[in-house]
Prior knowledge:
Layout lengths: L5 E9 L5 E6 L5 E3 L2 E3 L6 H13 L2 E15 L8 E13 L9 E7 L11 H11 L1
Amino acid sequence: MKHYPQIIAGVVIYNDKNQVFLGKSKNWKNKWTIPGGSVDFGEKLESAAIREIKEETNIDIENIEFINIGEMIASSDDINKSRHLVFVNYKAKFIDSDIMLNDEFDKYGWFDLSDLNKIELLPSVKKLIDVFYE
């Protein structure tokens, strides 16, 4: 069986205080990460990002902008299963909404740049957030 990379649309969500939204995810070995997920066949990247945010957090976003593309080739030591992931990353502004997490996140928080060294972030997410704050 041949395996292929999976395309993931992720979003750094920020609020009026310029804090970023992060969720603690069992899918990522209980590390903190941004919301996002797989792009379905025939689905536009930005549409996938908006859909995934809504499914995972019930958050509405606006002013979505492309940040960068990243890649992770991970073993099951890094995450719950071996995968080759291509991340298409966006940033977007939080629209006041009732946050309701699905089963992908155990908890969430809003974090300032200075808070990031106090939590266990995925290394790729740390790099992405550093780019966001530049």
